Amino acid sequence: MLAKALEKDYEIELLGTAFGTGTNWGKGLWLPLESENLEIKQVPGDYFPGYFASMAKLISQITGDVVIACKPRLPSYGIALVNRLIKKTPIILDVDDDEIAQTLPGKKVKFHNFIRHPNGYWATRLMNVFRHSADATFCVSSYFQSRYGGVIVPHGREVNGLKPGMYKREDVVNDLGIDPSKKTIGFIGTPQAAKGVHKVLEAINKLNRKDVLFVIVGGDISEPYLSGLLAEYPNTLMVIGPQPLAKIAYYYAAIDIIVLPQENVSVSLGQMPAKLTDAMAMAKPIIASRIADIPHYIQDCGLLIEPGSVDELADAIQWLLNHPDEATSMGLKARKAFEEKMTTDVMLATMKKEINRCLSVSNYPNN
User: Fold this and answer.
1) Is the per-residue pLDDT at 103 higher than 90?
2) SS3 for 283?
């Protein structure tokens, strides 16, 4: 997302570690990135102490005048800090998640993931010590801005990259095998308990409406959380696996209402779902939790609910289903708000100021 905005005015290089999981350990891109027209340099991941060699390989390939470290994690921010020591290259830290909360060890966490993994809990805690050491900071919400400082850069999309009318609903619904008479509630992204996905099914069950289908796009049915929901709600839930970003507009065409019912837990407090931007760009009526900066973007063009409230979620779904004209109008207002606040042009304008400031005060030898 950052690269797509910045490539309008800058030459971009994307570098990173391919960790992967299981049999894909040490290789493989995140699936949504595979369809993007971006050149990405990868170094195979490893546990410490082997990862020191990976760090050296990455640092040797960094040629930029400014390094943007995506997330305060050791394989990004840590490498950027070491690179600055060697090359004097300024760093901009980008924060869009509570990484410590994301890496809190569970009951069954393996020792080498807890201690030796570069993305593990202790490595991430170490990076938090240096959270104010960057030359500038991009934050996705005011919550993170209060902790890290810097400026707010929203999740943005190309103004014409996602827009309503790219696909016909009836065509997509037919392709996916969805009963065209059913109303579709959609969640597009990685379904997790912290994102309140189960509450949507509870709300639909409370309404006792047989004409409603909940569609999740981006789910892995081998995950216990999602497989459990499928077993409990076989006639209400449809799951479509992870998809490349280039196909997201296709699936949005089949969705009548988008839900983003974030829970009030530590991993969600400052989180701004990128799918909020996508849904607004696609002119979809949105129901979302009153959390982080979500109200700032959809106060006048969406329905806000208290995190965790099944009753409020059910009422919001019912209201939108019973008021289709108002739902359509709400989606059009969301599209307008997207164009004003959440495009890549908006991102670029903010980022350019910080990049230029970093370059003007840096000791980088090319300046």
Assistant:
1) no
2) coil
Give me the domains of the chain, ranges plus CATH numbers. Answer: 2-156+344-361 (3.40.50.2000), 169-341 (3.40.50.2000)
pLDDT of the residue at 115: 82
pLDDT tens-digit profile of 222-278?
999 999 999 999 999 999 998 888 899 999 999 999 999 999 998 899 999 999 999
Torsion of CA 185, 191, 192, 197, to 10 degrees: 10
Contacts 24+ apart (CB under 8 A), 114-121: 116/47, 116/48, 117/47, 117/48, 118/17, 118/19, 118/45, 118/47, 118/48, 118/51, 118/73, 118/74, 118/75, 118/78, 119/19, 119/73, 119/74, 119/75
CA distances from 317 to 21, 194, 195, 277 (A): 37, 20, 17, 20
Give strand ranges (E) for 110-196: 136-139, 151-152, 183-188
CB of 286 closer than 8 Å to CB of 214 = no
Q: Angle at the Cα of 251 (from 250 to 257), degrees rounded to 5?
A: 125
- The pLDDT of 46-60, averaged and rounded, is 95
Residue that is written with structure tokens 């996916």 in the block:
176
Tokens of 100: 């410590």
What 3-state DSSP class applies to 44?
A: strand
Per DSSP, 306 falls in state -
Q: Which helix (H) or strand (E) holds 202?
A: helix 197-207
Distance of CA 257 to the CA centre of its chain: 19
DSSP 8-state symbol, 115: I
Q: Report CA Rg, the chain.
A: 21
Give the tens place of pLDDT for each residue, 186-210.
999 999 999 999 999 999 999 999 9
Which of 193, 200, 185, 245 is closest to 218 using CA atoms? 245
